[in-house]
Amino acid sequence: MNVERRIDVTVATKNSARTLDKCISAIEANIPFRRLIVVDGNSQDETIEITRRHRALVITETGLLGKVRYAQALSCETDWVAYIDSDVYVYDTWWPNVSRYVNIRNVGMILGEAEAPVTKLPIYERYLKHISRKFGAAAFSNALIRRELVLSCKELLRDIHAGEDTVLARHLKVLGMRIVTIPMPLFYHDKTAVDDHPNAFFRWGQSSRMVGGLSGLKNLAKTLKNNVRNWWIFTLETKETNMQLFGFLLYLWWQMLLGYLHPTIEVN
Hints:
Blueprint: E1 7-13, H1 17-30, E2 33-40, H2 47-53, E3 57-60, H3 65-75, E4 80-84, E5 88-90, H4 94-98, E6 107-115, H5 122-135, E7 142-146, H6 147-151, H7 154-157, H8 164-174, E8 178-189, H9 193-212, H10 217-238, H11 243-261
């Protein structure tokens, strides 16, 4: 694909007025897009007014996040689609780097690393970057994705409200497709992982129960195993022994367990 070829860009929103104008401005400045499609979850703030000022196409989808991700792909028309979260500001280096891989036949998703605000637990950001570089990552936050791959995940995405990137990653692996994680910061994420991930793990626990029932307990067991394993790998390879980080990883798993035990999924 020629780097100058325009693609569709899609942004999911829900009361995103605080960051949306800056998000879209960065897209307009740094991505050669054909259309900008905003899939909104019935925002009650100024989100819609901001999208209209930027002349974006607005589609309403109030379902679970997995359904929103599918609706985003469905509303686009280009072979590759850029998913950009509403609190993400892409740099001018994002497009030149991610677009380099689109002509590789077995690549299905391409994304970069983030810069983010300083947190009360900065070692967690270092941990995430280290593990991502070692094992790869998958995220809809700043990804260029083959549209057909998301569309083929309709049933897999339907009943989940978190971890939809993990679901897509597993699907790509089954299909023999690669995810390319570019090991350099290509965007600014206006949200800290320390603040965001507990709620995401809670919703991932809810989704595990909804999709898998009792078999969803395997997700909980696998997450606990991975968190402990990854902490140990990070500790050995960086020589940073941090029990506060270990405790936070256990806390994330606890949030996932609470989500699994929670009776209903609330769309927010």
